[in-house]
Amino acid sequence: MRTTSAAPRPTRGRRSRAGWTSRLACAVVLGLLGRSGAVEAAPDEAAVQAAFVLNFAKFTEWPPASQPARQGAMLLCQFGVREELTQAFRALEGRPLQGVPIQWRKVNRLDEARACHVLFIAESGLSLVQLGGLPVLTVSDLPGFAQQGGVIGLVRQSGRLRFEVNRAVAQTAGLRLSADLLSLAMTVLDGSVRREGAL
Predict the structure, then answer these.
(1) How many CB atoms neighbour CB 9 within 10 A?
(2) Has residue 4 been placed in a domain?
(3) Which of 20-29, 113-122, 135-144 comes out lowest in average pLDDT?
(4) Which residue segment(s) compose the domain that 184 sits in?
(5) Which CATH number fits the domain that encloses residue 163?
(6) In a domain, 104, yes or no
(7) pLDDT tens per residue, range 30-55
(8) Average pLDDT of span 145-165
(9) Which end of the chain, N or C, is more open, meaning fewer C-beta atoms within 10 Å of its C-beta?
(10) pLDDT exceeds 80 at position 19
């Protein structure tokens, strides 16, 4: 395995992009809290994760036959039981994304996940190998998710929520992730090549 590092990017631009993404995520989180009527000093972990997932979907392009606009909805699915996360995702229902409303769905089996645009895997038990090649944006906070065949893995580092991207898996699934999203990733995996990034 050969490891390569991306050429350093200007610090100012990187901070600007990171700040823009952070502000966008915060705006989404505040919107969630406003819609649910909850008043908290800081958003909970599930709301922050939901905001990240929303932004991942916003900066992803699906193949023509699977585009949300063609199907009339952005289907956000969840595998596994996690009540706080379910509430955060359900708070997104009806919100417009890529010109169509978000629809949330709980899935229990692989065949139910095939129609999803975004699939958050909250617990182990779903074969990523069997999902390979399907145009599904898989996201999870399970340890080593991106390394094990998921598209985006959420990682808690130094008290901050960050993310890793497996671009090779995304390409196999026919998904195009925006350059802005990739530039903000903590790590980008390209098959046998691993690039480390920093925000």
Answers:
(1) 12
(2) no
(3) 20-29
(4) 11-196
(5) 3.40.50
(6) yes
(7) 343 333 323 233 458 999 999 999 99
(8) 93
(9) N
(10) no
* Helix/strand/coil for 93: coil
Give exposure, 41-75, as e/b (b: 16+ Cβ within 10 Å).
Answer: eebbebbbbbbbbbbbbebbebeeebbbeeeebbb
Contacts of 23 (CB under 8 A, 6+ apart): none
Is residue 6 assigned to a domain? Answer: no
CA distances from residue 62 to 12, 39, 52, 57, 123 in whole angstroms, order as listed: 31, 36, 18, 10, 25
Q: Is the pLDDT of residue 74 over 70?
A: yes
Is 2 domain-assigned?
A: no
Enumerate the β-bridge partners of residue 75. 103
Q: With b meaning 16 or more CB within 10 Å and e meaning fewer, what string describes 133-170?
A: ebbbbbbbbeeebbeebbbbbbbeeeeeebbbbbbbbb
Distance between the two ends of the chain, CA-based, in angstroms? 25
Contacts of residue 115, defined as CB under 8 A and 6 or more positions apart, other chains included, come to 75
Output the pLDDT for position 43: 58
C-alpha pair distances (Å), 127 with each of 5, 110, 121, 124: 31, 8, 11, 9
- Between β-strands 193-196 and 187-190, what pairing exists: parallel, antiparallel or unpaired? antiparallel
How many separate domains does the chain show?
1
pLDDT tens digits, one per residue of 86-118: 999 999 999 999 999 999 999 998 888 989 999
